[in-house]
Design goal:
By secondary structure, the protein is mainly alpha-helical. The protein contains six helices and no strands. The chain has one domain.
Length: 144
């Protein structure tokens, strides 16, 4: 599987990008709402890269899976139901926060900061959970 841009950038760089966007000192043409939405996008990419790493896409036979929703369903077998549920809920919130709708408010600065904290915690959990150490056995598989 070719390296994705998220995998090559690294989660720490993406978290640093989110921090830079969330800081008030960043100048330029970005509005506060644009910075918050950009930070949410960087956080989502970092979370997606961590899920890809946790699944060890090539070892698990998921190399052709491109859908993040499908990967989140598979994550339950590798990282446990609780972690998978929290990752899925956070990814859904970040995805909604990344999208622009002219009739909806974007994520608040406080919400994006809370997401940033949650992403950092889940990145650590996915890294240390041993999620990449085994491939789940199929149920009802014939025994040799």
């Amino acid at each position: 599987m070719p390296a994705t841009p998220a995998a090559s950038i690294g989660s720490t760089a993406l978290i640093a990008t989110a921090d830079a966007l969330l800081s008030e000192t960043l100048g330029g043409p970005l509005t506060p709402a644009g910075r918050d939405r950009g930070a949410a996008y960087a956080l989502r990419i970092a979370l997606e890269a961590a899920v890809d790493a946790a699944l060890t896409v090539q070892d698990a036979g998921l190399g052709d899976v491109r859908s993040m929703r499908a990967k989140l369903l598979c994550l339950r077998h590798y990282a446990g139901a609780d972690v998978a549920r929290r990752v899925s809920a956070l990814w859904s919130g970040l995805s909604a926060g990344c999208k622009y709708h002219h009739d909806e408010l974007g994520p608040s600065h406080t919400q994006v900061r809370a997401w940033r904290t949650a992403v950092e915690a889940l990145l650590a959990e996915l890294d240390t959970s041993g999620a990449t150490r085994h491939v789940p056995q199929q149920r009802n598989a014939e025994r040799a």
